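INFO  loader      accepted 1 record
INFO  loader      residues=264
INFO  predictor   begin
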Amino acid sequence: MRIALGVEYDGSRFHGWQTQQEGVRTVQEVLEQSLSRVADHRVSVTCAGRTDTGVHASEQVVHFDTTARRATHGWIMGSNVNLPDDVAVLWATEVPDDFHARFSAVRRTYRYWILNRLSRPALFAHRVTWIHRPLDASLMHRAGQVLVGRHDFTSYRTVHCQAKSPVRTLHHLRVERQEDLICLEVSADGFLHHMVRNIAGVLIAIGAGEQPENWAAEVLEHRDRTLGGVTAPPHGLYFHHVDYPDEFDLPRPRRSSSDPLRFL
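INFO  predictor   done
INFO  writer      dumping tokens
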């Protein structure tokens, strides 16, 4: 059977999602080790979207195939018992064989959290990006609206990005402030390597008054990464949610529990 899981993790102590050489700690590695113990056979998982070193997930979605028969709560509780404290399975459900965590996804949403105050964070030092200079969140929101729609995002991806096409459809982009916290939320049909962090870097420069409001549009039009802004740090980035067709009937848990805002 094929099983889908919702997984959250703190990426601070991981070298990204994807399994690498021996001795390099990754989310995929520890999750597969845990599931293999529950299933009593080797398990290989596929995720909705890989995350880089230091990037977190509020609800990553994965799938795997197994011959083991376990109750839903068995997959959840059994996995969590064997997982380190910075990874947790939120939900589990059986899915049809044609479900694919990556290719069945119709929309992915990321959130980028900025702590905008004079003092550096202590409690969330590796879970938010700290910007001490004042930022205008409303200005950042306005500037970012030019990115909504279908565009060539060459200027907003790393020069090492291996995607065949730089064209993506951005469904929405929102920047909101709640006291000292600023949240950038972006949703798209797919993302290029470092795309969200590069968008954040451009909007931070605009919000700080270092660049004019129309700079986000200028960067987009250049289609040249070397003319773009600074890539924002990974600490504030969260793989927030994935949308799938209703036919798969995946669980829809409350996702606010993983947001830094809930704890501040």
